[in-house]
Design goal:
alpha/beta; Rossmann fold; binds adenosine-5'-diphosphate; binds magnesium ion
């Protein structure tokens, strides 16, 4: 659950982000949340509510307009959007990007002209200057972890969507991140391939990895998450244990959103 800042791996305070200076409300409006090491957090909410932007700010693919983000020891703060990013801020953003692994929705994110194992070794070799034998050894271990050891020398075009996503997870893990973020990692997959990708996240959870997953897989969110965060209109509306949120949501916006899933076998009392 949400914890005291000193016990948290991730601390986010008053995170704001807008893409249009003229807009009345931003895409992210004063988001504050603390996430404990080892937690698996599902982030749900209607399309366009800011889920991807939230992950992208945490991964520093987008620079926050204002607020504070800490991941482990790396801190990034900005007083307002008018504060020009200085060297200190850019250095923190660079460090944070290394601490935070990210897997995207599409399964075409691997470099097509490199084999699976080359894809996984690339980040450590180029960014971390890891010696080749060490990078290879780590990649082999990670391929085993995601069940792809037999596909090490295949090219991405020969993989199924589920295999590609598992390779993308292994590639992110190769940088030894403190946190893994997933932006709808299974939404582009055929239904029969979803389970194998979700299973990798469950396995990582049991090993203590901290993970934030934007997902529409409500059953997974409910069963596997330590808690679920519901976002709407750039705000965190409510967060709670999956069983509580699905059976007894407090906020009317949460109830309205979850109502869409009542026909899917999910028990939602609202
Ligand atoms: N790079 C961008 N430039 C301009 N607007 C953006 C950009 N990224 C996202 N947005 C806008 O921000 C809002 C939230 O988008 P997003 O974070 O992708 O929502 P979600 O992932 O919840 O569907 C949307 O209105 C979207 O159009
Ligand atoms: Mg999105």
């Amino acid at each position: 659950m949400v914890n005291l800042p000193e016990a948290s791996l991730i601390v986010i305070e008053n995170l704001c982000k807008s893409f249009d200076d003229g807009a009345e409300a931003g895409v992210l409006n004063n988001i504050s949340i603390n996430i404990k090491e080892g937690d698996l957090v599902s982030l749900i909410g209607p399309s366009g509510c800011g889920k991807s932007t939230f992950l992208r700010c945490l991964n520093c693919l987008e620079l926050l307009d204002s607020g504070y983000i800490r991941v482990g020891d790396v801190e990034l703060s900005r007083k307002s959007v008018t504060q020009k990013p200085d060297e200190r801020m850019l250095d923190a953003a660079h460090k944070m990007r290394v601490e935070v692994g990210m897997v995207f929705q599409g399964y075409n994110s691997l470099f097509p002209h490199k084999t699976v194992i080359q894809n996984i070794m690339l980040g450590p070799l180029v960014v971390k200057k890891t010696p080749e034998p060490e990078a290879r050894e780590t990649a082999v271990k990670l391929l085993k972890k995601v069940g792809l050891e037999s596909l090490a020398n295949k090219y991405p075009s020969t993989l199924s969507g589920g295999e590609s996503q598992r390779a993308a997870i292994a590639r992110a893990l190769a940088m030894n991140p403190k946190v893994m973020l997933y932006d709808e990692p299974t939404s582009a997959l055929d239904p029969e391939l979803v389970g194998e990708v979700l299973q990798v996240m469950k396995d990582l959870d049991s090993e203590g990895m901290t993970q934030i997953i934007v997902t529409h897989e409500m059953q997974f969110a409910r069963d596997a998450s330590d808690y679920i965060v519901f976002m709407d209109k750039g705000e965190i509306v409510e967060f709670d244990d999956g069983d509580v949120l699905f059976t007894n949501p407090k906020n009317s916006r949460t109830k309205e959103f979850l109502r869409h899933f009542t026909g899917t076998g999910m028990a939602v009392n609202c």
